[in-house]
Each structure stands twice: as C-alpha cells, then as structure tokens.
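Researcher: Good morning. I'm working through a list of sequences from a screen, and I'd like to move beyond sequence-only analysis. For each chain I'm collecting a predicted structure so we can compare shapes side by side. This is the next one on the list. No need for commentary yet; just the structure.
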Amino acid sequence: MIELYEKISRINPNYRNQVFTVIEGDQIGKKALFSNGKLVWETEDRGFFSSYEKAISGIDICGLADLAGNRIYSEILGNEKKIVICGGGHVSMPIISMGRMLGCHVTVLEDRPTYANNARRQGTDEILVDSFENSLRQVSGDADTYFVIVTRGHRYDRECLRAIAAKPHGYIGMIGSRRRVALVKESLVAEGVDKSVLDQVYSPIGLDIGAETPEEIAISVMAQIVEVKNKKKNHCGYSKEILKGILEPPEIPGCGASREVLATIVRRRGSAPRETGTKMLILPDGRTIGTIGGGCVEAEVANRGRQLMIRDSFTPELIHVDMTAEAAEDEGMVCGGVLDVLLEAI
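Model: Good morning. Structure tokens for this chain:
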C-alpha cells in the first residue's frame, strides 16, 4: 500500500489524477490510481479495477459511486495550493500572511534585496531574488498555482504576465487601474500572447469590496482566490503533511501499535464543517495530522481509528457520524451535519 502513496507523491500534477477505493462489497479495500486516463497502480495486478477501466473513465466526481455492484469512493486529486506573488511591496505583505494562514505554499519574486528581506521576515515559504523574468523560469506552475502580480510598474507587470500566460495555472490576478491593465494586455496581444488566456486574467485584482488599505486589498485578493479554488472539483487529495506522515512515519518509542490509520470523509450532508475528501492521519500514540472538523466528531473518529490499529485485519471500516444541531451546540461547535468516514490502516 505504501507504493500507492509514493506514486501519488511523484505523480504529474498537470494530469488528471484519480484514486478509487472500494468501500463496500466483496472487493472492499481494493484501491487503484489512474493518471491521464490510464491505470498506473492497483492493489493487485489485473485486479478488480483493471476489468472496468472504460466504466471508470466516466466517473467524474469526488464522492461515492457504484461500479459493478460495488460501492466505491472516487477522488480527483488536487495538489498543494501554491501562491506565487510577483512583487514584494506593501500589498504583498498581508497576502503572504493570509496565504500561509490558509495552508498555501507562498513564493515571492522580488528583484530588490531590501524588499525581498521584508517578504522573508513576513514568513514567506520561498523567495526568489532576481529579475522577474529569471525567477519565473524557476516556477513551473500547475492547475493549483495561483499567480498574483503586484509589481511596482506596468513594465514589470507585462514581463510577469507574458511569462505566466505560457504556464499552467489555476488563477492569474493583476493589480492596477483598468487603463494600465488594458495597455499591458494590448501590448502582449501584439507580441502574440494568447488572447484567450489574457481575457481570463482577474483584473482589477480581487473581489469588489471597496478595498483601500493593503490589508483590505489582501482580503479581497485572497477571497477571490478561495472563490476560484472552491469552484473546482479537485478538492480531494493528500496534503504534504499527511503524505510525509505516511511515507516518513514518526518514531514513537514505547507505543504498542505500529500502524497509522487514514480517515477520509467520503460523504457529507448538512452543515458539517469539512468537505468530502478531507483527510486526517491518526498516529499510533493518538496524535493526528490534519483535521476533519474538530470537536467530538473528530474525537470519535480518532478513537475508532485507534481501535482499528490493534486489529489483526486490515479491512477498512466505514463509520457514520451523526451530529445534530443540538448536539453540536452542546459540544461548542457551530456546525452539525452527517458524515460518512472511511478508516484505512496504513
């Protein structure tokens, strides 16, 4: 099974990647990984999923489906969300902070060392100090990369937008007045840059909330990025922290259990706080990586996961958690709802 997670960690992020798991029926626990429409890994060679490749190609959801009389869970894999900020000025600082608060990997491109140091002190994950053109050569981009262009002048805006328009991306936003933005786009179209890409640039950047201060502008930008992100279907996936916890399990001296258990929300109804596909890794000592919403729901799932660790069988378990509004209030939670959670021993 570890081989599956190794493949997920190395898979091409620009392909459509999907993991399927049988959660009920006589094939329970069988898994498969499809990439770019092809079966690249299965629990056993020529197993259950290899017999239904054509049928699987039509499953386009992150959630539950039926396959040959078996209940399966399908997840379209997203990747770590990355924000690439072109420019390290005063607007960039709160964007860095908010991006990291939302769990994104934040990279700042800045050609002025003093401003680069400001971004570094703000806590950016990565900073590239060079010309924007050279720095963007080091950024590959993918469907989960969100580019934010907030440079100090339209010359640099044009330089950045020209390079970014040729890269895979999930979002491109550019600050500036409508006139400044129009001039940049017109000049790039004249150079042969794809107009259809330029027409999709969010500019003026951010949601229209009448933002004035750098902090307000950052809120509008991040709100727009969240809006774009959440309209996609690929909310499922494995965070880098969970993958690291699986592939490089921490040493826990004196702990009797040796397995980890992965908890995944496979169905959500009502106002439960986390979406389908959300994951939590339960460690042998009771600690967890990630969260499926906190409170008594998470505590119950973690407890069931610890029970699974000590069993002889590796058979997955599907548990049903029903948190009514009244019970949620009693536990100090703002959300109720119903969850089906799949527990799998790693």
